[in-house]
């Protein structure tokens, strides 16, 4: 059943709500030879950037470190937010303690306490899209080149 399409302002509001309240998202990366990899990761959103952590030597960790790009997905297939982003790679002790504590409290997981070496991945959205059904495909871009579209 198709409902009326949401306005851009409503989609942005819904997207920012999801970024603020969701804890997990899908992380799609590719290796240097193009082998795709998809995993769920916990994240924290500070209003501008997402923060995630994964083992440094995992396929996702290696891919993010090598390519410095990522595609993220939140939601389900009838209410999806897609984010194309650039990635900063940080050693696990590079963040201020308060920022790591915020991540751990929000996600229920503290990568700093793991015996496996983890890295932080600070993710800056460049393009954000959101849609529910085919009638929301036009105007699905909410952000381009790192700037929200009015």
What labels describe this entry?
9-stranded antiparallel beta sheet; 42% strand; Pnp Oxidase, Chain A; 3 helices; 9 strands; 150 residues; alpha+beta
Commentary on this structure:
- With 150 residues, the protein is an alpha+beta fold.
- The protein has one domain: Pnp Oxidase, Chain A.
- The chain contains 3 helices and 9 strands.
- Strands 1, 2, 3, 4, 5, 6, 7, 8 and 9 form a 9-stranded antiparallel β-sheet that branches.
- Strand 3 and strand 4 (50-55) form a beta hairpin.
- The longest helix has 14 residues, at 8-21.
- The protein is globular and about 50 Å long.
- The mean pLDDT is 96.
Layout of strands and helices, then pairs:
Elements: H1 8-21, E1 24-30, E2 36-42, E3 44-45, E4 50-55, H2 59-67, E5 69-76, E6 79-91, H3 97-107, E7 118-131, E8 141-144, E9 147-148
Antiparallel strand pairs: 1-2, 1-5, 3-4, 4-7, 5-6, 6-7, 7-8, 8-9
Summarize the structure.
The protein has 3 helices and 9 strands; from the N terminus they run αββββαββαβββ. It has helices spanning 8-21, 59-67, 97-107, and strands at residues 24-30, 36-42, 44-45, 50-55, 69-76, 79-91, 118-131, 141-144, 147-148.
């Amino acid at each position: 059943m198709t409902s009326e399409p949401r306005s851009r302002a409503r989609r942005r509001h819904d997207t920012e709500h999801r970024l603020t309240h969701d804890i997990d998202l899908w992380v799609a990366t590719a290796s240097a030879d193009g082998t795709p990899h998809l995993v769920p990761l916990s994240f924290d959103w500070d209003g501008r950037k997402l923060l995630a952590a994964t083992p440094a030597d995992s396929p996702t960790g290696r891919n993010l470190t090598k390519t410095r790009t990522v595609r993220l997905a939140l939601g389900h297939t009838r209410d999806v937010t897609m984010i194309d982003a650039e990635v900063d790679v940080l050693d696990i002790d590079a963040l201020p303690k308060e920022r790591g504590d915020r991540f751990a409290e929000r996600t229920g997981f503290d990568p700093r306490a793991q015996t496996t070496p983890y890295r932080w991945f600070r993710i800056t959205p460049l393009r954000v899209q959101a849609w529910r059904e085919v009638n929301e495909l036009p105007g699905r871009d909410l952000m381009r080149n790192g700037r929200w579209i009015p």
